[in-house]
Design brief:
single chain, globular, five-stranded parallel beta sheet
Length: about 200
């Protein structure tokens, strides 16, 4: 069973996080390795913030699930957690990333990056269309750092809507993110967000 860090906007999406953790535990899919990173000072350098999160808070996790609600893209702590999850450090290696679009976003968007095995999770979809512009991701409330990486084929970030989460889908998506995390070539060029907007 994999240790998973869940990144989300605490004020709006706590209920979703609690449901996901309960579902994961009840179905023996993952162990929650999440902690609250909101107490990290803004006055620290990007490198120090990344080091605290990657080597401290994310230390035992290998997959990060990002819960995307309508305000998630505006939250600096979510950006810090995503960046730190993607960072391949000396002590702690990068994590696989799975994005779950929450119900209030109205997004039914699915992005598969792990091949046919992942696409088989969605047998009702007969035709797949690739998104090739940030504008289309912005319409789906996607945080900027995730948009950068969803457009990068070697990043291997998957997206599924909340209503598609079931024991099989979640288990397979976490396993694929874990399995392919070492091959991911994440785009970390964007500076870390310094303010909420």
């Amino acid at each position: 069973m994999h240790k998973v860090f869940i990144s989300y906007y605490h004020d709006n999406d706590q209920g979703y996080k609690e449901q996901l953790v309960k579902f994961g535990k009840d179905n023996s899919i993952f162990m929650d390795a999440s902690v609250d990173t909101r107490d990290i000072s803004d006055d620290l350098s990007d490198e120090r913030i990344r080091e605290i999160i990657r080597d401290g808070y994310l230390r035992d996790s290998t997959v990060t699930i990002v819960l995307v609600g309508t305000e998630t893209k505006r939250r600096k702590h979510v950006d810090w957690e995503i960046y730190s999850s993607m960072y391949d450090g000396k002590v702690n290696k990068k994590s696989g990333i799975l994005v779950v679009n929450l119900s209030e976003t109205g997004s039914e968007h699915i992005h598969t990056s792990h091949g046919e095995e992942e696409r088989n999770l969605y047998p009702d979809i007969m035709s797949w269309v690739s998104i090739d512009s940030k504008t289309k991701y912005e319409d789906r409330y996607m945080p900027a750092r995730l948009m950068d990486n969803l457009l990068e084929p070697k990043a291997k970030v998957s997206v599924t809507p909340w209503n598609r989460i079931n024991a099989k889908t979640l288990s397979v998506l976490i396993e694929l993110a874990f399995r392919d995390r070492g091959q991911c070539q994440y785009d970390l060029r964007r500076p870390m967000r310094r303010n909420n907007s």
